[in-house]
Amino acid sequence: MKFFVDTADIDAIRELNDLNMLDGVTTNPSLILKSGRDILETTKAICDVVEGPVSAEVVAIDFDQMLKEGKHLATIAPNVCVKVPLTWEGLRVCKILSDEGTKVNVTLCFSANQALLAAKAGASFISPFIGRLDDMNIDGMELIQDIRTIYDNYDIKTEILAASIRTANHMKEAALIGADVATAPPKVIHDMIKHPLTQSGLDQFVKDAGEAGIKIA
Ligand code: G3P
User: Fold this and answer.
1) The whole model's pTM is what?
2) Spacing, Cα 69 to ligand 1 middle (Å)
3) Is position 83 annotated as part of the catalytic site?
């Protein structure tokens, strides 16, 4: 499973990228707001660091303006992936940009039918939101599983990008199901390393090494 990081925080992106943990980045208007920076400048800065796809989201909801914004975002760098909402206008923009060779990530997906439509419109990525479904007591992972089954039934190439990931356990479950990509906040990626037995085992080794007076270099 590929790892994307869901943030516009350039320092966090750089840190994970240096460790080879990153296959791409996703942003959205809320993350841009949180960063306090301009979307065009931020997207360019991220694309300068990361080789893989960097999703930058349009803000217009009408077709003409959305297409204009999508085309503009695509000029920032060759690895920009234009993110559009799962609306008819978004799918129309998706079809045009995909036909022109721009990668498109269709976001705000909450049903398998929506994922089928996005694939038909030529989406490179479909972003089902796990956490927001879980918030409503609907199992977000079931949606990932349904889309996986449907896409595999027809050999659909659109990549399933599990989004709205809130916990390290979501990462494991998405990988078990076979999501192509998971995008998570930096904290969740960091949390994946945690295990109490690793920590207690290390504490014991450090204590014993001290008592034994072990010196290596
Ligand atoms: O990738 C989509 C993500 O940014 C939304 O996450 O936690 O706001 O539902 P969340």
Assistant:
1) 0.96
2) 22
3) yes
